[in-house]
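ok so for the tutorial part 2 we go from a plain amino acid sequence to predicted structure tokens. step 1 is just haveing the sequence, like this:
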Amino acid sequence: MPLFHFSEEPAIRYFEPRPVQIPSPRAAGRDWLNGPLIWAIDAWHQPMYLFPRDCPRILIWPTGSTTEEDRQAWWGGRTCRMIAHIEGCWLERLRRTRLYRYELPEDSFQCLEDAGMWVSRAGIAPIRSDLVKDLETALGDTETELRVMETLTPLWRLWATSLHVSGIRLRNAGEWAS
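step 2 — the prediction. this is what the tokens look like for a chain of 178 residues:
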């Protein structure tokens, strides 16, 4: 199973574990997740990181426990596997950003059982890297529909649904109240 790390920096030859820039509240016994780690994402969940690093975004997808009511209300007849929401003020930056997708060897990684996230406490050299020139096309290639909104604020109620909801960099959203 491939694991990836996305970066706007080209030619990273070696990843060193480092603490997160802004620590998050963690469940008891999971404070180590704010410590020095290398973060990776599995192939299925990689659309979550096909964005400029600081771009606030909310991605949703149905799960096995998604109710028919939530599917109809939020998904309708769509055939995509994910929907990604961003604010309109980020669209031009999304279109200009070029990302490097680094494939990492999985042997030192531990699965967090949380939306495809994996971590390693050991330094690691990437297996390869690929330039992703067009993020909108890359999202489409992963069956992810991009929705551009004036603000992400109306989506706060998604967390009360039976869909999977991942909010990333929401502290950078225009009107988001954390």
